[in-house]
Amino acid sequence: MSGFLADFSNELANAVERAGASVISVPEGGREGVSGTIWRDGVAITAEHTIRGLDEVDVVLPSGAEVKAAVAGRDYGTDIAVLKVQDAGPGAKLADEAQTRVGEIVLSIGRRREEGLAATYGLISAIGGPWRTHQGARIDRWLRLDLNPFPGFSGGPVVNARGEVLGMATSGPRRSAATIPASTVNRVVDQLLQKGRVARAYLGVGIQPVAFPEGTARTLGIAGDRGLLVVMVEPRGPAAIAGILLGDIIVRVDGAELHGLHGLQGSLDPDKIGQAAAVEVVRGGKLVPVNVVVGERPEK
Amino acid sequence: MTAAGTLNPEASSGISIGYSLGSLAEWLRRITVCIRGPRGTRGSGVIWRDGLIVTNAHVAVSKSHSVDFFDGRRARGKLVGRDPGVDLAAIAVDMSGLPIASIRSARELRAGEVVVAVGNPWDGEGAVSAGILHRAAGRQPVIFADIRLAPGNSGGPLADAQGNVVGVNSAIIGGLGCAVTSDAVKEFLHDAGLLEAV
After folding, report:
1. Is A79 left (phi over 0), alpha (psi -120 to 50) or beta?
2. Under CATH, which architecture does the B106-187 domain have?
3. In whole angstroms, what is the distance from residue B185 CA to residue B183 CA?
4. pLDDT value of residue B10
5. Are A108 and A38 in contact, with CB atoms under 8 Å apart?
6. Shortest distance, CA A99 to any CA of chain B (angstroms)
7. Which residues of B touch A150 (CB under 8 A)?
8. Nearest CA in chain B to A107
9. With contacts defined as CB-CB under 8 Å, which chain B residues touch A112?
10. Which CATH class is domain A3-195?
11. Secondary structure of B81-148 in the HEC alphabet?
């Protein structure tokens, strides 16, 4: 009766099936089980927040087999946990990120222990630049989805209409679906497999944004009207060793002015670890330069 | 003009999908009825075969219902079978020559297939919505779809991309549409002695 719609329907079902060959079920995850994605040979990922505190989880493979998978590493910043699981199935086929466009049809795919593959569909409603999670992790780009997240979708892939993987689905704010893009997943998986964790740069200070009194910023040659007040200095931390004091107001790192907490996190990417950062603080009404050797954040 | 050249095929397939959905909706409207309850409530039903309408048990709550057809005709419907356990009911109408639903087993559906619902929510008679099958039918008598349903969809058809009815919409659970499978309907009609001899 309607050829186009039937073809479209077949294509979507094929995409679910194709991508589903790399989707596993993690029944212990979350409240009623979550999903995972076979990322590479012998390596799967799932949403870290759903399996917190577990060193080993049961997984249901696309073949239906139930096996144990060791948690090889976890990064709460990007919400990625890496599972080691042998003979799980083919690794996900990744989409070409450069070709991804707003308006493209996407599917969120999960697997449930009893019922098998599950999917919802929607659109890429916006694509943005890099962003930071609340935990300070850098995500390579923002993929906003117009899509209905379903119970257990976390950890499964978000795929395009060809079944190629755009990233890992996880819960976003206000019951939305957030996507951790494939490039970020690759970066985190590499680090987790090498070190078991993701290194995060760290100064060892507690900070709070404060407004300068009128005129102060101008006198000191600062463009913005806010700085970051140091309200805590970690004993023997990188900032303490460099001589940063309680009450200092951080205004610049490596010449760039900071705008809020995210600005400081943004200037502290992992590749800075072990290197000196030129920090400028306001102390006693004067700009004071301090060189801080950026440390690595200790594990929680 | 190369840009227009490359864009045209996509644009035309977009129009065709819209056209396909439109003609599909038109067909489904013909096999969908509006069932009015005693207190002004409104639900939907599917013309399963000549003179027999299938709906939800929670729509067919009394012995007799007013049934509106796509062409504006109205008939008195008599309750001839009801099973709240599977949320199904059958209503007989004294009419013939009606368009009849084409039925497909819900067990054949794959996750991701396009599904279309027609029903009578409060703000639109014969309202159509489209989505995909959320997951394949298991042993349960219901299927789930990623589709936007409203209360008046109850009892109306959930169909595949070719207009074959695969279920009777019955509930919204966790944001997903829930439909009683066509297979469960057959079993229900069989148990009620309403299944025609094949």
Report:
1. left
2. Beta Barrel (2.40)
3. 5
4. 47
5. no
6. 15
7. 134, 146, 174-176
8. B112
9. 135
10. mainly beta
11. EEECCCCEEEEEECCCCCCCCCECCHHHCCCCCEEEEEECCCCCCCEEEEEEEEECCCCCCEEEEECC
Please give the share of chain A, as a percent, with pLDDT higher than 70. 99
Report the CATH superfamily, name and number, of domain A201-296.
Answer: PDZ domain (2.30.42.10)
Residue B188 scores a pLDDT above 90? yes
Reported ipTM: 0.87
In degrees and rounded to multiples of 5, residue A264 shows phi and psi of -70, -45
- The closest CB to that of A116, out of B23, B27, B135, belongs to B135
Is the Cβ of B97 closer than 8 Å to some Cβ of chain A? no
Per-domain residue ranges of chain A: 3-195, 201-296
Q: Is A232 helix (H, G, I), strand (E, B) or coil?
A: strand
Sign of the alpha-carbon torsion through B141, B132, B59, B29 = negative
Of residues B134 and A263, more confidently modeled: B134
Residues of A in contact with B175 (CB under 8 A): 148, 150
Q: Please write the tens of the pLDDT for every residue from A116-146.
A: 999 999 999 999 998 888 777 889 999 999 9
Closest A-chain CA to B109: A13
Residue B9 pLDDT level (bands cut at 50, 70, 90): very low
Sign, CA dihedral B47-B51-B53-B59, equals: positive
The per-residue pLDDT for B15 is: 65
- Residue A65, phi then psi, degrees to nearest 5: -70, 140
Nearest to A1 by CA among B88, B25, B179, B54: B25
pTM given for the model: 0.83
Per-domain boundaries in chain B: 106-187
Phi, then psi, of B2 in degrees rounded to 5: -65, -35
Query: Residue A77: pLDDT band by 50, 70, 90 thresholds?
Result: confident
Closest alpha carbon to A103 in A183, A19, A161: A161
Q: pLDDT for B42-98, tens place per residue?
A: 899 999 999 999 999 999 999 999 999 999 999 999 999 999 999 999 999 999 899
User: Contact, A198 vs A188, CB < 8 A?
Assistant: yes
The Cα–Cα gap between B29 and B59 comes to 18
Buried b (16+ CB within 10 A) or exposed e, B4-33: eeeeeeeeeeeebbeebbeebbebbbbbbb
Contact assignment for B20 to A2 by CB distance below 8 Å: yes
